[in-house]
Amino acid sequence: METASYSSRTAHEPWNKGKLIGQKPPLKLHEIWTVRTQLRMTGKTRELALFNLAIDSKLRGCDVVALRVRDIAHGNHVIARASVVQHKTREPVRFELTDQTREAHSDLVHYYSDHRHHAATGIR
């Protein structure tokens, strides 16, 4: 059986040396508004709706992306308060959606309903 010679290997620098690891500091209010403005200006409706929902709900990322439209909207109406069961803790989390978040999700619902209609009729 061969034994590995660790002394002959060259030392390499760890990928996270000097980087901030662990919990990151929360976004500042002006940073949140900058992201929202950039998403709105570039027309990224889905990303804006998800970003607003993540800020309002304070859910983990895996819980935000697992949400369905029906969890926060009934038909074309976006509800003001929602309750979601967290994946990690299995505890329900209740949160209120701000007007800005409801508007972004309403735009998203209308966008998808329009595209579904156009795809079904062949109109682009």
From TrEMBL:
Gene3D superfamilies associated with the record: Intergrase catalytic core
Protein name in UniProt: Phage integrase family protein
Domain of life: Bacteria
Single GO molecular function: DNA binding
Keywords from the named record: DNA recombination
GO BP terms: DNA integration; DNA recombination
